[in-house]
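User: We ran a pulldown and think these components assemble together. Before we commit to crystallization trials, I'd like a predicted model of the whole complex to look at. Sequences follow.
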Amino acid sequence: MLAKVTEKDMERVAELAHLELAPEETGRMLRDLNAILDYVAELNELDTMGVVPLAQVSELGDVGGPSAPRADRLEPSLKRDAVMTQAPESDRSFFKVPKVIDR
Amino acid sequence: MATETQTAGSFVAKPKTFGELRAEIAARRVKASDLAASYYQRIEKINPQLNVYLSLTKDRALAQAARVDDLATKGDPLPPLAGIPVGIKDVLIMRGAPATAGSKILQGYQPPYDCTAVARLEAAGAMLLGKLNCDEFAMGSSNENSVYGPVRNPVDPERVPGGSSGGSAAAVAANLAVATLGTDTGGSVRQPASFCGVVGVLPTYGRVSRYGLIAFASSLDRIGPLAANVRDAASMLSIIAGHDPKDATSSPAPVEDYAAASDKPAAGLRIGVPAEYFDEGLDPEVGAGIEKGIEALKAAGCQVKPVSLPHTRYAVPTYYLVATAEASANLARFDGVRYGYRSPNSATLSDMYSHSRDEGFGAEVKRRIFLGTYALSAGYYDAYYLKAQQVRRLLAEEFLRAFAEVDAIVTPTSPFPAFKLGERADDPLAMYLADIYTVTASLAGICGVSVPCGATSAGLPVGMQILASHLRESTAFRVGRAIEEAKI
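Assistant: Here's a predicted model for the assembly, 591 residues in total across the polymer chains.
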């Protein structure tokens, strides 16, 4: 867990997250991330061998979580028109985006 | 009419209680439409100085006022929140009203549906005044991360109101709403409530539907009320709580009349005090305020005893790994395709995604997406995300063991009172430590309330955090009432 984030890691993460970093932002982000990761390394002090990970508190047992999944039924949803009005660019039926394949 | 009392040199003003307003409207001494108008006048006058509201929903509030006045004129029964002016944190969506989440990336977005909690407030008669400023995507502890500028603390405008629900807390403190809704992922209702001297509720995870809440970290996000007193906050929770088919994690457990339950004296309750929350990082004046609160609980007939929560110190690192991992997934949806901001001049789809996100997200949001994406990426998943989930279980189980011994646990809400604008803005780690006493309950899914508990010598509010086990909101409210009645 003591791995240092490198500029190469940052490039990979930026690609995964569809984010860009201007060259002047990279240094700051690298410094912040390494400081935060150094701090979270404190968790290594704890032996968690055999501890079952907890993703959702409903897994804790009787804590008032949902009891059963809902029935799988078709329900009315939002009207397409109402949704499409929010699109930056659309033809009212489809979202328009720049071309995907360059040929 | 909106103003009852205003302290000189600050913007602090105490709203009337729900009960007082209801009686006045029912007796037709006050018209809901006049009440709404007086709040809008006050907002117009004070908002430029505090930056609390991002947008107003006047048409909707006035239409509701007309309905309430109509009922009152006919002498028909009034719904429970008839004519109560409320404000809504701008991560909760309202049909047709701008929803920004404090971010540029949602520029121009006007959602086509209502958040369940907001719709329930309106169905109960509340007047929805407008949308309240907050940290971008609720990420922050000072409200300085809003692209629309920081909110200022009504107690001292040179100081932050806390975050991320800074606008929601400041609105109540300055009587720009009688009550508000905020959201709490790692302390975002409780901490600003403590900084501004108001009451803020963290309901049990699943108690309130998250439908229509712009997601930050889905296993942690909760919607909670803020109000000037415990009873009103409790009333509001009874309205917004309860199962919602639109949120699969919402609890089917029956909803209590929390306000009535809060009337029951706290005498006989067992109160735990964890030493881990009173360490060297705690401001001595905040500590002194909480000590007075604990004495008041003893005087009220509570049995106070120490409890041990040794994993507390691991909560902030655990929280920041879990929350950023979930955020990196949740915020993937903002890509410029379906709503909000799209960067112009992108030649390809891939460029459009990354340009829109680069230009649309602020620095803290990017930092958290980077951290979360890194923690989830191949090679690091086990070391970071999985490890954090394991520690999360240890933290949650530790609380469950403590609640076998005590009914409630009391701590400071924040290690320090409201700090000055800019004081922590350059150091993300220092800002994260502001959440040190609140993230534990967030990870464990338990409920709590932050209640004003005295002030520092400079007059800055101190908040006591009262935690109770899952679905034991009534217990937390009873303890809160005892603190309130002690007038510390």
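Chain A touches chain B through 59 residues (CB under 8 Å). That may be worth checking against your pulldown data before setting up trials.

User: Thanks, that helps.
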